[in-house]
Design a protein that fits this description.
Layout lengths: L7 E6 L5 H14 L4 E5 L6 H11 L7 H13 L2 H9 L3 E5 L2 H9 L14 H5 L10 E6 L2 H6 L11 H14 L13 E5 L4 H21 L8
Parallel strand pairs: 1-3, 1-4, 2-3, 4-5
Helix pairs in contact: 1-9, 2-3, 3-5, 5-8
The structure holds 3'-deoxy-3'-aminothymidine monophosphate and magnesium ion.
Pfam family, one: Thymidylate_kin
EC number: 2.7.4.9
GO molecular function: ATP binding; dTMP kinase activity; nucleoside diphosphate kinase activity
Amino acid sequence: MTTPRGALIAIEGLDRAGKSTQCDILLNRLRAAGIPAKLQKFPDRTTPIGHMINSYLTTTSTNLDDQSIHLLFSANRWESRDSILSTLQAGTTLLLDRYVYSGIVFSAAKPAEVIPDPKPLSISWCKAPDVGLPRPDIIIFLNIGQEEAEKRAGFGEERYEKREMQEKVRGLFERLRGEGSGSSTDKEDWWVVDAGGSIEEVAGEVWKGVEEGLRRVREGSGEVRSI
Ligand code: NYM
Ligand code: MG
């Protein structure tokens, strides 16, 4: 008998929603339950493309136009595609700390800087370069209010961590999740968790989402779908 494939679980949310904390807890919890698991973070700042992204996010001297940085974020996922698929095929569950969905909403939320054509990037334009990447079995969305996020340590250090931008990101995530008009992802892909509670409370709710993701894989065809 072949090994059943691992689950692909994306954790998404605004900056300071607690994604990285929850990913670490989850990884330990999966392993403690005897489920082989790995964590992959996007952007992956360790690759050459990731170095460019990091310098864009952390310095004001690296200037890239909105389209170019968007495509770099996407390329940074494509360069992991083979390892994502082989990890799943080896029976290892893979947690993604951000994925395509952050890619879409952060780019689409940007105030267009280009003159004389100040149109923001559309969701469909932003989604296009990621079409064909492995699609998560479940996307766990850590939902946090803006005031709570701003209270958390480190907020405001990087590009995009501004209130106005974050509010747009929040609205666009809602649209993607199918809560507004013009959703471009399937509603059943999303598992929304209130991330305003204690770390333990949130971890408990996240775990329920993971169990749902694992169930979908068990009952599914074994195939990894594509975006
Ligand atoms: N981000 C992240 C994007 O703009 N596009 C993407 O494709 C991804 C994966 O990068 N503010 C943004 C969201 C964050 C920033 O992410 C850095 P993190 O998780 O803080 O390292
Ligand atoms: Mg950040």
